[in-house]
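Morning run. Coffee first, then this:
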Amino acid sequence: MVRRGWSRVAGVAATFAGVAWAGAAAASSGLDSPDSGVVQMGRGSAWLARADDPLAVFFNPAAMAFQASGVHVGAQLLMANRCYTRLGLPAQGATVGTPVAPDTAGGAPAPLLPGQAQPGPQYAGDKTVLPADQVCAPATPFPVPQIAAVFRVASNAAVGIALVTPHSAGASSWGESIGYTNSLGFGVTEPSPQRYMLVSSSALLVNPTVSVAYAPTENLSFGAGFIWGVGTLDFVTFSESISTPTPGITPTDHSGGDVKAELKGKDLFIPGIVLSGLWMPTSNLDVAGWFKWQDALKASTDLTLTSLYWNANGTPNTTPCVGAAANCNLTQANGAGTVKLQIPMEAKLGLRFHLPRKEVTDAPGWSTRPGRKVRDPMSQDIFDVEVDFTYANNSAVQNLQLGFNPGIGIKGTPSGTQVPVNGDIPYNWKDVFGVRLGGDVVAVPNVLSVRAGGFYETKGQDDQYLSLAFDLAQKLGLSAGATVRLGPVDISAAFAHTFYGTLNNGGNGKVYALSGDTSGTHSQNGQPAVCGPDPKNPAIGPGCFRSYQPINGGILTQSLNEVGLSGTVRY
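And here it is:
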């Protein structure tokens, strides 16, 4: 029987894929949101039509035709606050979608305590002797750096190069155990209830981009760029070795059968393109459009599995192989399989109104060279306001496609237990639409500009497919920032806060752990399961290569704080 670790592995892979997607750093994608960049952040990412620094290489290459040559270096520091409460399951035989029985003490859905399908009667009593209902990932600051350069090669043409990392925390740690004080006053630990979804994740993702821009007139330009994405990943989750239910009893988690799974992978070539146009029909109005397409992330994977992980009391088992061969519980499989995740296509449309100064008396030399047009809002404008509309084709992501080579056995588990060939994890994302509004006021011409803005994005997933790898709840962000010009250098700083909607499926999740249990004797609602005969393309569902209980029922909440600092040198 295959370990659930596989399902978790899939979840882990999904997480990586999601982070890798974030490497694209654009629009309203479920992989990251909104854009990277300090000035962008301060304006609520309403920057498409303004695009006045070298990050335009990725976010609007057409704008490079109206920039001076320059180099940009910046970084944002993301601090995400994420908490998850796993809720109990409906009673055996209940119709899918039936609300979970409430906790008798507070009337809320019953939290799933470690090792239990439903909290026992004692939950209504002294809660101080039980683990906390909620598990939270530490808000560890995560850096998101950017570097870019633009070179004006002619009066109406420019080239640029950029390294843009995802606007997403590429590392997180939820922990594998939670501690609390029992009724006797002793400190104890239990396996964490979210361990089947995600324990930890780490990803390094970079999107080198080379772009060109050409302006056939002084008011119109076009740009195009080539993306060479690169990503590596390392994720850890837990799974079960077997998932055989007891007739008449709601399926439960059993930590005694857990397998810890670590998945590593890399994709060294994720090609993509960006296309954009910039039109200035009047002296007050700029119009811009942007499109991004990138190939799917396709990573080869290495797998490490550790069985016999817990003692009966829920503490880590430090001596699993007493009386047996060393590493009796350790399975290592290099080149174990592949993971594939579609990267959503994205598009943006921006409209910018700006009020030019009647007389520009204090402008930097790089903006006034004869024979070329350079837009410099800090010396040329009094203020500007921009609105951007965004779209992400997130519905292209229906599954995380995770496949493993046949015949990979798992040490320390029942004879015949193997990693499942088909480990696909359902996501069922929805297209996402967004709007961004922001602007600058030049407080001191050619010296100081202040800005503020915000953005909103629609919900991109059904709560029943909640995941710790991605959070596609609706989002509302507010931000502010400023730029100080010191000679040829612009120093920018910004702060932003993003509010996330709560995802809550009431315990009725639709993601199941992978499993080798294909007997089909019981399904979630007590009806016989029918499994496909082809192991390379099996019918999957509860009781068919999947666990009998969903492992993502619960509530996910999140918020995000971030600060940023950047510098741009022009010449």
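Residues 5-570 form a domain with the Porin fold (CATH 2.40.160.60). Good start to the day.
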